[in-house]
Amino acid sequence: MRVLVVEDSSRLQRALGTALRKSGYAVDTAGDGTEGLWLAESHDYDVIVLDLMLPRRDGLSVLAELRRKGKSTHVLLLTARDTVADRVEGLQAGADDYLVKPFSLDELLARVQALCRRAYGTKQPRLAIADMEIDPLARRVQRAGRPIELTAREYLLLEYLARREGQVVSRTEIEEHIYDGQIDRMSNVVDSAICGLRKKLGSAPLIHTRRGLGYVLEADPYSARP
Amino acid sequence: MKSIRRRLTRELLGVSLVLLGGGWIAFFLSARAELIEQFDITLRARALTLTALTVREGGRLRIEAADRLAREYGSARPRDFFEIWQDPGTPALRSDSLGGADLVPPGGLPDRHAAWDVDLPRGRPGRAISVNFKPRPIGNDRGQAAGGEVMLVVAGDRDGLDEALDELLGIAAIGGILLLAAILIGVPRVLRRGLRPLDRMAEQVSGIRADSLAARLSVADLPTELLPIADRLNDLLARLESSFDRERRFSADLAHELRTPIAEIRSLAECALKWPEARDPSTDRDVLASALHMESMVAQLLALARGEQRQMSAQRIEFRLDALVLATWEPFLSRAAERGLTPHFEMPPAPVAADPLLVRSILRNLFDNAVDYSPAGGEIRASIDFPGGATRLRISNPVETLDAGDVAQLFDRFWRKEAARSGQQHLGLGLPLARTFAEAMGWSLAAALEPHPLRLVFTLANSR
């Protein structure tokens, strides 16, 4: 999952970036509204954490511009303004959620996660595919009742594929959503990660390669036939 | 609770009732006196006729053409009466209508002309007048020395008079009652109508609350007596609204200024607890920076509060303002050079007596703003002059986006042109603090815009 944090306080930006990365998100940051808008328009984020009072261009204007251009990325407004009128104004401008500073980091992470779930059209906290079960809250994966140890990045990749179960996910999409867009497009980082994940998930493959298109996570389509 | 309407109603009703009662009594008494006077005039006219007809003949008194008077004074219809007294106690003539009775007032016969109420025969009430005259001598008495005066008493039945008086009393009573009712109904109504603008104003004023200070009293159709009150109240409301807005803005700004560093510290701490391996010296530096930022804010707010409560003591030391300006500017030289800013100072010797520490703080603040907010390549000017014997320091820098409205808010706590309030070097407390310092020394600090090219000018001046 890829998250954009637009926050002018450099210290808060760093803290949020660290927390989100440690939670397995790919994170981009921007320190003002103009840069934030440019990033939001240029990339396909799952969630944007947007401060309201930003230099150069305020958060509401960024949000309005995004909505005007048809960007439906889920936006969590983060602000020190806490009146009902402020919240209503933010939500009416197209925000999906609103969090007042100071906030609990766990709450912010939970809200970001909830917005990610909404981004993939599910409200189920647990994901189950064949005999594999993913618990995003606890970040635990088990298959046939056997826990599987994954790195944060591997977990994120698996959850991303699982949320798009049955859909072909391109390498570019994986790079965009999992790797901050910082990796060399010509490298085989994604292929290596998929390979490592397949090994950890064991036999009865769940991740299938669609040559020239990307990967799809689903129960073996052939074994599912009668 | 005192009510103007109730008091006015009570007092107006009281005054009206006193006036009504007095007027009613005066009217009744004067009308009654007039009726009695008219009755007496009639009696006098009759008396005049009788004196003309009364003659003395052979030492005796007689009425000429008595038969012509028999109808009026006869016994058949006893309504009019007369009696002539030749000597006190000796009636010489009387009308038949008296039937032998006398027309004597209770205190005896008067000496001269008089009028009185009298009891007529058969116990009827009457009114009598007396006149003295000398009867005309006829016959043998003609040519003799005129006899003495006699007294004629003429009386009339006052049934008609009493009926007229009763009727008058009735009319006056009914009129009085109607007038009283009109006053009792009319006075409160008139007062209610007259005080309606006051009621409307009271209603509008009572509807004003802390959250509706934008409301203004309507002055349309307001009487001239209330206009000054409404105008003053509207002025007061405008000032209150502005003051409340400023306080609200201050609270919101303070909340924002404090929430952000608190959020920073909390997030950094939670991050460090959750992922201890992610904690590095930069985390601690960030926490420290946030804490120092809050500390600085609290220190400035406290200084501001002390200054506003007149708890700040300013020393009075003689020093050279020009030297202090140059010394204070020195640390800003490198920052100014980085931004391509050129200083242009005109500093004649300017000895002043003030608190050099406070003046230095003011100057540092003004230079800090000038260096940070001037467009790159601009010129920062400082000059001292002595208008009217006072010492005036002017520090100015070019600006791009300020307008007159902004200048009016420059000294508001936490006011910053940039709505985002980004960057933590400036809190928006420096200028209000600088003004507080200036006022603590008895100096003034003002800001103004100079056009073409647009420059922001701060003027720090002492009194002469």
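The interface with chain A takes residues 252, 255-256, 259-260, 262-264, 266-268, 270-271, 274-275, 278, 282, 286, 289-290, 418-424 of chain B (CB under 8 Å).
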